[in-house]
Amino acid sequence: MVKIKLISLLLHVNFALNILNPVSANEQEDRMIRPPIPEKLVHRSCLKPDIPLRIISKGDILISEVLFNPRPGGVDFVEIYNNTSHEIDLKDLQLANINSAGEPASIKSVSAVRLMIPAGSYYVITSNQANIKENYYTKFPAQFVQIGSLPAFSNDKGSVVLLSNNVIIDRLNYNAKVHHPLIQDEDGISIERVSFSVDTNDPANFKSAAAVAGCATPTYKNSQEASGEENFVRLARKTFSPDGDGYDDILNLDYQFAENSMLATVNIYTDRGRLIRKLLKNQTIGTSGTLSWDGLDDSGLKAGIGIYVVVFDVFDLNGSTKRFKNTCVLAGKLN
User: Fold this and answer.
1) pTM, entire model
2) What is the DSSP letter of 41?
3) Contact between 328 and 235 (Cβ < 8 Å)
4) Which residue ranges form the domains of the chain, and what is each CATH number?
5) Which whole-number Å values give the CA distances from 122 to 34, 50, 80, 92, 142, in the listed order?
6) Which of 54, 118, 211, 295 is deepest in the core (most CB within 10 A)?
7) CA distance 308 to 323
8) pLDDT per residue over 260-319, tens digit each?
């Protein structure tokens, strides 16, 4: 009896609601076929399609590398680094130098349209990306931003400024004297940032790009960037066979040093101590990298089957030296 009264009461309530909020026959049919979606299940992207982009703040985008004294026929470039954990739109980024009053001048917009730079990536701003790609190895050729012209950067000293909506977010006051003192010709050698956690203008935070890295590292990790505290030089494989079969034709020597701006001399000797190949002679190296030997001697002839010793000497300007020796085997087919 109670159930009959309750059902009767609900019918009267539904009847009253339909009078106050009439629903068409089509809507009633639609509701029967497709029940309403709970509010918690509605995706936010459906409710707010235009999510505002992040504003570039100081420290988000940092100056990573600058080439201000290119070789004859070359062009300048400025490499930037996304120092955040999220992508950033470069549309509001500007590049400038400093005038005699110490204020940003020759301000150039980096992009007129939306241009996203992923977290932890390096992008190069230049007026001629084809020229940079022709003169340097570019690991990520798509990571270029070409603009009509760069602000003028003196070959001796000057300032590189990054702005966002006309607010300075990073500034590098550079001087050609920052180059390694043993470099005789500075043309075409960039200066690279050592650390993104140290102030941009710290006296030790920009160094000459390593000669073994091609004197510049546009679009990828700087050669002088800190790599680790361990010092080592080791062979990837101790046996190689340079016979052109595509398998173990090259001997690779991996190295890492805690200090930057080191110089290296690398020689290869027979097991009897005869020098047959000079891989490096007093060249600047990066904090980490790989050297390769193709099995040829200094005359361009293939070295004979046997045991060889690779001697890797590194030294700094204070006279500190380190020597690493690795033994390898040059294998081949016996006739």
Assistant:
1) 0.80
2) G
3) yes
4) 2-38 (no CATH), 61-213 (2.60.40.1260), 232-330 (2.60.40.2550)
5) 50, 27, 6, 17, 11
6) 295
7) 16
8) 989 999 999 999 999 999 999 999 999 999 999 999 999 999 999 999 999 999 998 888
